[in-house]
Design brief:
Keywords: Carbohydrate metabolism, Glucose metabolism, Isomerase, Magnesium, Metal-binding, Phosphoprotein. Its EC number is 5.4.2.2. With about 575 residues, the chain is an alpha/beta fold. It contains 18 helices and 27 strands. The structure holds 1,6-di-O-phosphono-alpha-D-glucopyranose. The site of 1,6-di-O-phosphono-alpha-D-glucopyranose (G16) has 18 residues, from loops.
């Protein structure tokens, strides 16, 4: 057994190591600076309680983006030096974010050990490569992202750090080969176990969904399917689940080879960046839909996000979670005993609220950030939750789950078509969404993103919007001047959340303008960018009248968009006459 020793390396702090909405995300050129990653990892170890470090089992893996392999070796050496007992690594360093959560919760090591936490190496939907982004976040023993109480401590530690511990002479571990490598150090044995990235996750999915009925759908001659991993880590799971387990044809998979730079693309599953899938599904084309796939879906870099498409049809993430909640008990065996409750993030449309009300379910509105759902789930208050930012999931783990969402939709399709697999016309994604609108009303919804705006200008715009809230009559005068046909603002605030489980309070979670007819405008600064600022503008309008739920959403929302741009003085502050991305 190779023996290692521990070095204490002096260091000085770096500015700006504050974890954002989901971990620390920066350009690779920032992360590769000497000591930069080390400082953050040591600050994390120092923020955890002793039993979560000394003698503990940690998972270290990620979406495989550029710099991951080097980062994994560094974290292994620092774990050894800090007294961690064993590190688990997905083969080739690959584990999707939901799979990490599943591994923490479900996996038992060869020696009977269980994981206490994880370093996840991902910048999610941000591009990868030497000039792009890298990221790191810590997940806790429940499988979910560290709460603010822990990330605040990590940040405080990064400001005062003076040294870190590392086993410099520990040889690099071959993470391409499954197996256990054992070392000895000053405090005893240290093991690194490399394991198959997909098995635990696949087993969990099989325990939740009825794979046989999904298989019937996927192999039906009338059903065609297309899944785009955008060269992210989802590719490592897609072949195993959709092709090997569920019988989809291999040609259904698009961009399913994980790449360090995501093939030069932007691994964000939306209508702008998932271009190939969007074209394949015929969106924006005026053809009849002949020969197009029935169902399409895409994932982001770390496979926690999803986009659901039908033939020439886009399902908004806000509708998606509402539809999954409305059908879960009938279509998904895991929920057959009923839902405990449902939750959405504040900027997500109120489509889920209407379902909760109709089904008599407990409902929660939390700030943006998956970590806020974790407490509700741990307390048994929430079964299904989702966010407008293409995140959907359930209490099977403590992260959002892109492939789970696709399996949920396939389950709903299989359920709706159960007596009709060989019929001429299957119930389609579009049919399901339109039936839902007919039953619950429709929330027209769109999001405008202004990416990489000057950070100072973005702050000024937000300050202006807060100031404006002090006079609602002033706000309504502006609205009357631009669009007298738009209803009036009856309330305006900055969203604040008191966690019903631990009582913690999160302030400044987005600026809201609430209209008399139920419409909403929400403004937020993204917490996941790595440079400049991204302003997000969320626009929503509820239509109950089923004869009016079939309009084009951009057309339906045009008056509210005009009002939002005027109120915020968007062009004046940012110099941008149009957003970078519209979803
Ligand atoms: C993260 C969080 C999500 C959040 C999203 C968008 O997702 O886990 O809960 O909705 O960021 O955040 P923002 O609007 O601040 O950019 P991911 O997929 O980036 O980990």
């Amino acid at each position: 057994m190779v023996t290692f020793s521990v070095s204490k390396v002096p260091t000085t702090s770096f500015d700006g190591q504050k974890p954002g909405t989901s971990g620390l995300r920066k350009k690779v050129k920032v992360f590769v600076q000497p000591h930069y990653l080390h400082n953050f990892v040591q600050s994390t170890f120092n923020a955890l309680s002793a039993e979560n470090v000394r003698g503990a089992t940690l998972v270290v893996s990620g979406d495989g983006r550029y710099f991951s392999k080097e980062a994994i070796q560094i974290i292994i050496k620092m774990s050894a030096a800090n007294g961690v007992r064993r590190v688990w690594v997905g083969q080739n360093g690959l584990l999707s974010t939901p799979a990490v959560s599943a591994v923490i919760r479900e996996r038992t090591g060869l020696d009977g050990s269980k994981a206490t936490g994880a370093f996840i190496l991902t910048a999610s939907h941000n591009p990868g490569g030497p000039n792009e982004d890298f990221g790191i976040k810590y997940n806790m023993g429940n499988g979910g992202p560290a709460p603010e109480s822990v990330t605040d401590k990590i940040y405080e530690n990064t400001k005062t750090i003076q040294e870190y511990l590392i086993a410099e002479n520990l040889p690099n571990v071959d993470i391409a080969v499954v197996g256990v490598t054992c070392f000895t150090g000053p405090e005893g044995q240290f093991d690194v176990e490399v394991f198959d990235s997909a098995s635990d996750y696949v087993a969990l999915m099989k325990s939740i969904f009825d794979f046989q009925s999904i298989r019937k759908l996927l192999t039906s001659p009338n059903f065609t399917f297309c899944y785009d991993a955008l060269h992210g880590v989802a590719g490592a799971y897609a072949k195993r689940i959709f092709v090997e387990e569920l019988g989809a044809q291999e040609c259904s998979l698009l961009n399913c080879t994980p790449k360090e730079d995501f093939g030069g693309g932007h691994p964000d599953p939306n209508l702008t960046y998932a271009k190939e899938l969007v074209a394949r599904m015929g969106l924006g084309k005026s053809n009849t839909g002949e020969g197009l796939p029935e169902f399409g879906a895409a994932a982001d870099g770390d496979a926690d996000r999803n986009m659901i498409l039908g033939k020439r049809f886009f399902v908004t993430p806000s509708d998606s979670v509402a539809i999954i909640a409305a059908n879960a008990v009938d279509a998904i065996p895991y929920f057959s005993g009923g839902l405990k409750g449902v939750a959405r993030s504040m900027p997500t449309s109120a489509a889920l609220d209407v379902v909760a009300k109709k089904l008599g379910l407990e409902f929660f509105e939390v700030p943006t950030g998956w970590k806020f759902f974790g407490n509700l789930m741990d307390a048994g208050k929430c079964s299904v939750c989702g966010e407008e930012s293409f995140g959907t999931g359930s209490d099977h783990i403590r992260e959002k789950d892109g492939i789970w969402a696709v399996l949920a939709w396939l389950s709903i399709l299989a359920y709706k078509n159960k007596d009709n697999f060989s019929g001429q016309k299957l119930v389609s994604v579009e049919d399901i969404v339109r039936q839902h609108w007919a039953a619950y009303g429709r929330h027209y919804y769109t999001r405008y993103d202004y990416e990489n705006v000057d950070a100072g200008a973005a702050k000024e715009l937000m300050a202006h919007l807060v100031k404006l809230q002090s006079s609602l009559s002033g706000v309504n005068d502006i609205i009357k001047g631009v669009r007298p046909d738009v209803s009036k603002v009856v309330d305006a605030d900055e969203f604040e959340y008191k966690d019903p489980v631990d009582g913690s309070v999160s302030k400044h979670q987005g600026i809201r303008y609430l209209f008399e007819d139920g419409s909403r405008l929400v403004f937020r600064l993204s917490g996941t960018g790595s440079e400049g600022a991204t302003i997000r503008l969320y626009i929503e309008q509820y239509e109950k009248d089923s004869s009016k739920t079939g309009r084009d959403s951009q057309e339906a929302l045009a008056p509210l968009v005009e009002v939002a741009l005027k109120l915020s003085k968007m062009e004046e502050f940012t110099g941008r006459s149009s957003p970078t991305v519209i979803t």
